[in-house]
Amino acid sequence: MTAPLLSIDNLSVAFGHGSQQKTVVQGVNLHLNAGETLALVGESGSGKSVTALAIAQLLPYPQAHHPSGEVRLHGEALFKASPRRLQALRGGSFGMVFQEPMTSLNPVHTIEKQIGETLRIHQGLSVSQARERSVDLLEQVRLPEAAARLGAFPHQLSGGQRQRVMIAMAIANGPELLIADEPTTALDVTIQAEILDLLADLQRRLGMAMLFISHDFNVVRRIADRVAVMQNGRVVEQGDRTAVLTQPSHDYTRMLLAAEPTGQPAALTAQSPVLQTRDLRVWFAQRGGLLKRVRGHLKAVDGVDLTVHAGETLGVVGESGSGKTTLGMALLRLQSATGAIDFEGQDITQLKPKDLRPLRQRLQVVFQDPYGSLSPRMSVEQIISEGLAVHGRGGSVAGRAQLARDALTETGLSAELAQRFPHELSGGQRQRVAIARAIVLRPRLIVLDEPTSALDRSVQAQLVDLLRTLQARHGLAYVFISHDLKVVRAMSHRVVVMQSGRVLESGLAEQIFTAPQHPYTQRLLNAALDGAQSV
After folding, report:
1. Residue 460 is part of a domain; what is its CATH number?
2. Cα torsion 127, 132, 136, 138: sign
3. Which residues are CB-contacts of 220 (< 8 A; sequence separation ≥ 6)?
4. Residue 311 placed within a domain
5. Long-range contacts of 393-400 (CB under 8 A, 24+ apart)
6. Does 356 share its domain with 505?
7. Residues forming a β-bridge with 304
8. How many CB atoms neighbour CB 278 within 10 A?
9. 424-461 pLDDT, tens per residue?
10. Secondary structure element (H or E) that encloses residue 448, with its range
């Protein structure tokens, strides 16, 4: 019998010391054969990413104890390898693709410099050789206009393009093992499908094994050969993909498979509009030439008309680059726009910042990444009560602190978390804090920009239930921006579908999901359906 490419035996990892020590991975046993894909699944905090980082010895030191147990690659004990040997293995024998490329790529270096660096370190290529090889790699990962992209910086690329660059860097030196940690989580369904197809194609052509970490069973169905399920740092079930996903033996696996946003929002009664837009446009000038003259415009939002009523959720869907987030930022007056935005009967496009400020307590936002939008230097209580202080609400410091604790309780969190900091909370808890920060001001409308995209399915279902409860209790209007069509269907009364800045189709949610009229909407729904049904 052929020995496995990767073997993990009795792996354990703990954080902290003494009475503060907490074991986060315990007794993990896994193996991965050449050319095989093993999917490691589980909820946030189950130990998936820590297991992957332990393989490459990239755990934070000294916060994490040196892992115990054994990890072997081709029989070589990685925990006994010297720093020089580990450097040769990282990016050489195995490559890594992380969840969020915007934080993994260096923002001040061009794409060429970042890919070229790994080529020069591991292969000793010259600048010209590295450039030629970089173009070849970008073409392999199907990045359009590969040569022209070499001089681009990460912020100039879309999410899908950045992830392709990360994959190009990971495969640059022909690794035998690719570790992919949630590589498609923040991508829309069509881009997600493209990235999964790309990974599968590269795996076939290069003969790589892949350890694929995900919380999304639709993705796992599509790409995995075998599946291992983790809970509280332990592997509770593993086996062939079909067996685990169709006949799970463990209660936790069955819970994960059943956990997804379901149901529909409460029936909507006749209500007056809270927000209306007319011919809303956000155009970005594109300049060129020596004098940087305007050569044209990127029409990020182009002539959009919307109406949102009290107590209603308007879902906004579309691929990356369709203009969804730009539209949301324009509604909040966080992005310059032309046209009319009527909020509670007043055109807010004409208001100066000082006149707009009092309205912001009634017009709130919850962003996609709570870890990035919550200040790491402020406690939960300070984060939630900051808006109260700005708008003169709550009276005294003690009064504002009590309102903050009440908001925590209303979002399903313990008031005891008030003195913690964001890094001490899970992803789902951080997003609840972001929601508490928004509702504490008793707004009329909240723009929710991909609020569940980085969360596992069970936490997504909990947040959808929470948002529907808060809406019914306070009569909130939501603009719900998402690429996750299951979440949109569970949340929305009406839906608009965007492409290239324009609304292609709009109507009641059930009408859009059961009888879409536009070919683009049909393609989005088919992409989501294909991912859900792949086995």
Report:
1. 3.40.50.300
2. positive
3. 39, 41, 212, 214, 227, 241, 245
4. yes
5. 393/361, 393/441
6. yes
7. 280
8. 14
9. 887 788 899 999 999 999 999 999 998 887 777 788 88
10. strand 445-449
H/E stretch holding 303 reads strand 293-309
532 pLDDT tier (thresholds 50, 70, 90): low
Task: Please say whether the dihedral angle defined by the alpha carbons of residues 186, 190, 196 and 199, taken in this order, is positive or negative.
Answer: negative
Number of folded domains that form the chain: 2
Same domain, 369 and 446: yes
Residue 231: domain span: 6-104+173-256
Torsion sign (Cα): 174, 176, 180, 183: positive
For residue 292, tell me if it sits in a domain: yes
User: pTM for the full model?
Assistant: 0.76
Task: List Cβ neighbours of 252 (8 Å cut-off, separation of 6 or more).
Answer: 229, 231, 236, 237
State the pLDDT at residue 35.
Answer: 92
Is residue 264 within 8 Å of 251, Cβ to Cβ? no
Domain finish residue from 206, 222, 256: 256
Q: What is the pLDDT of residues 320-379, one digit of tens each?
A: 778 898 999 999 999 999 999 999 999 999 899 899 999 999 999 998 877 778 898 999
- Note whether 195 and 283 are same-domain residues: no
My answer on whether 243 and 356 are in the same domain is no
In a domain, 310, yes or no: yes
347 forms beta bridges with 342
Whether 351 and 498 map to the same domain: the answer is yes
Sheet of 177-181: strand order equals 94-97, 177-181, 209-214, 37-41, 226-231, 234-240
